[in-house]
Amino acid sequence: MSRRSSARWPARLNFARQSWGAAADAKLHARGVRAQSARETRHGFLQDVVKSIVIWTLCCLLQCSLVWALAHFSVSLQLPKWMSGSGWLLLGSCPVLGAERLLQRSAAGVKLRGISGDGPMKEVPSRCFPAIILLPALPGAPWFGPRRVRLLLALMAGMLLTALDRCLSPFAAVIGGCLETLLLLLRAGFASIWICDWRLQELWRKKT
């Protein structure tokens, strides 16, 4: 009996070593999978920042193009003051009004579907409209002020561009519109970077 038991000990030791090695390999593999998924998630967050800044840059270039086009046509066609003033009012107020919604659709990933908004929204019965999706609020929102503040700022920006066009020249209104667009772009870029940092910190907290 002693010889048989002594002969079985090496086999048991080899089996224990193999099982321990397999368990260690499984742990290393699981750790590598988690690290890879976390790396891909961080890479996705950085891509969202780049996409958001690119989208905002393109929208701001479009806004500046519209401002220059309005100034050009108001001078070349000699538009009446009420017509050009209405255009400047729209070009000054619309970017401020739509800034928060555009940031909500671009800062945490491009979201083309869904309803955006930062205030209390009425619940829609899912039986009537099953395809309606409410976009989640951004961290730190609202980034461009509450809704009433945005309305006031939009009205002030539109009236300022109209006053510049009426009192000075269309070129002065163009400069004011481009400055407004630049300020919105800087604010959106800062918000996108801050939101990315917040998402990375949340990912690190979940990991730890």
Description:
The protein is an all-alpha fold. It has one domain (32-118, 128-207). 77% of the residues lie in helices and 0% in strands. The protein is built from 4 helices and no strands. The chain has helices at 2-76, 81-106, 147-168, 170-207. Helix 1 (2-76) packs antiparallel against helix 4 (170-207), helix 2 runs parallel beside helix 4 and helix 3 runs antiparallel to helix 4. The longest helix is centred in the N-terminal third of the chain and has 75 residues, at 2-76. It is elongated and about 70 Å long. The two termini are 52 Å apart. Residues 119-124 and 126-130 have low confidence and may be disordered. The chain crosses the membrane at residues 49-70. Keywords: Membrane, Transmembrane, Transmembrane helix.
Tell me how many strands there are: 0
Largest sheet: none
Number of domains: 1
Radius of gyration: 29 Å
Total of helices: 4
Keywords: Membrane, Transmembrane, Transmembrane helix
Please give a quick description of this structure.
The chain has 208 residues and is mainly α. The protein has 4 helices and no strands.
How would the blueprint of this fold be written?
Elements: H1 2-76, H2 81-106, H3 147-168, H4 170-207
Transmembrane segments: 49-70
Keywords: Membrane, Transmembrane, Transmembrane helix
Main attributes of the structure:
4 helices; 208 residues; membrane; elongated; mainly alpha; transmembrane; transmembrane helix
